[in-house]
Structure formats: C-alpha cells, structure tokens
Amino acid sequence: MTGTLYLVPTPIGNLGDISRRCVETLNAVDFIAAEDTRVSLKLLNHLGLKKSLVSYHEHNKKESGPRILERLLAGQSCALVTDAGCPAISDPGEDLVRLCAGSGVPVCALPGPCAAIVALSVSALSTGRFAFEGFLPAQKKERKARLEALRTEERTMIFYEAPHHLRAALADLLAAFGPDRTVSLCRELTKLHEEVLRLTLGEASAYYAENEPRGEYVLVVGGCAPRQAAVSLEQAASLARALVEGGIRTKEAVRQVAEQTGVSKNALYAAVVDGS
Ligand code: SAM
User: pLDDT per residue over 165-195, tens digit each?
Assistant: First the structure.
C-alpha cells in the first residue's frame, strides 16, 4: 500500500499557531520534506520532535521530488513543510502535490496558517470574492503586463511581496490602478512588529518614499469599482468631455471613463476627439 503525503502548514511568525493535529502528524510520519531543513529543524526542536528530514525546494525539486515519490510508493508517509505558512501556496509544494496526485499517492492537506488568508481577513477590504496573485513577475515588462490585465479586476487582489521590491511594486500598482485605489499593507503578520496600514495607493507610495520597507508583506488591493451597465458610446464620450472640461487630460479622462463603463478606449478616444 502506498503512503500518504501530508501538507503541514507551519507558523508564519508566531510559533503558538501550529495546531495539535499538525504536531501529531509531524510526529507520526516516516520522514519530513522541508524547503529549508535548517528552518524546519528549529521548529522541530521547539516542538521537541526528532525526525528524519529531506530537502525539497525550488532548486532541487526535479531530483528530490521523484525520490520522495519513490518512498511514498514504497509505503512510507511524508509530511511536506515549507519555511512558513501553507505548503503549495507560492512555493514548490505545488509540484510535489501534482507528482503524487498523478501517481495515485493520497495527498492530505491539513488546515493552518496562510499569509494570504490572514492578510485578507484583517484587510478591511471586501472578502466575498478575491483573486490570489502570489508574487508579481520579477521582470518589469511582465509585471506591467500582469497588472494591465488586472486593471479592471473587480475582486479584491492579494499579492506577496519582499521588502526590497515593495517600492517598485507600489509604483507599478499606482501606475496601473491609479492613486485612489485602496490597499492594505500587511507586514510581519503574527510577529512582534505586526502592522496593517490601510491606505490608498497614492498614500502608500508617499509613505514608503519616506519610510524604509521592512519585513515580509502581503498587499491586499481593493478591486475596480463595478462597471456601469450599458452606457452608450455617446454617453461615455460626454462623460469624458465633462472630465476634460474639468481640467483632466483627454487621455486620462478616456482611460477613467473606459474603465468605469467598459466602452472601448480607442472608440471613446476617437469619439471625444472627433466631437470636440
Ligand atoms: N506558502 C506561504 C503561505 O501561503 O503563507 C507563503 C510562501 S511565500 C514563499 C512567502 C511570502 O509570504 C512572503 O514573501 C510574504 O509575502 C508572505 N508572508 C509570509 N509570512 C508573512 C508574514 N508573517 N507577514 C506578512 N507576509 C508574510
């Protein structure tokens, strides 16, 4: 009989957040696959557990994954842990789950800490519908394209971000979504210096121009306001012209109205320019 792969969430800061079931599972399995064995060893020492650890991370997953699978197929049980939080969410655990599922090895996910969900719940933004976006692409061009595709996303969006990328990420979010979009910057969750700043993107950029980003962040960004239904090109053009008369540049007015109404930006631009 094959063994089971257990996905065991670990604390994202506060060690008290590990559940009794997670401890029992770590204690019961034949071996533990860890993203960083040194980090997991500290947790196991804290829990008073002694277990055989193997390394499974982004840079060795192609070799390590099949070795873990082989042991599972031979009947051993394995707990997968990452440095913090829920395995398989924005970490290589995803590949091991796919490998096991494809080979008929049972996968059992235990509930527990996940930075995205902790941040969403404390964000004070709408939680009814949300889109988890993980890390934005590192390359500027791809990052911009990703954000452009999200410009009219109406669901609350969740992004993971490292402190050294925070300013660049805020600048790109600001360019894509405008300065008035709400953002909850959730930092060092469950840790001593936990902080949640609920700002607009304009305010957040100004704040971090003055203050050094420190620690781990989850950015929870409010979705785009729902589009007004069935606005004609004529009506959209007169809305845009009113904005232009109020002092907004034509291109920006067209962008805003197209976003709110769903009318094509090019058609709207042509209508505004031709009619003016
Ligand atoms: N699988 C983990 C989870 O779902 O919780 C996330 C792993 S991902 C490699 C690490 C990212 O999670 C960090 O860069 C940060 O964006 C976020 N994160 C983890 N711990 C956090 C914390 N205590 N406070 C804020 N963000 C955190």
Answer: 999 999 999 999 999 999 999 999 999 999 9
Same-domain pairing of 104 and 11: yes
Tens-place pLDDT, residues 207-238: 999 999 999 999 999 999 887 667 889 989 99
221 Cβ closer than 6 Å to some ligand 1 atom: no
Which domain, by its residues, includes 124? 115-221
Tokens of 40: 């997991």
C-alpha neighbours within 13 Å on the C-beta side of residue 250: 11
* 132, β-bridge pairs: 158
Question: In this structure, what CATH number is given to the domain that contains residue 175?
Answer: 3.30.950.10
CA distance 180 to 204: 10
Residue 7, SS3 per DSSP? strand
At residue 5's C-alpha, the angle toward residues 94 and 67, to 5°, is 80
Gap between the Cα atoms of 193 and 214, Å rounded: 10
Task: Give me the number of domains the chain comprises.
Answer: 3
Residue 55 identity: S
Q: Is 185 in the pocket of ligand 1 (CB under 6 A)?
A: no
Whole-number Å distance, alpha carbon 263 to ligand 1 midpoint, is 38
Bridge pairing between strands 217-221 and 182-187: antiparallel
Q: Which atom of ligand 1 is nearest to the CA of 84?
A: 2
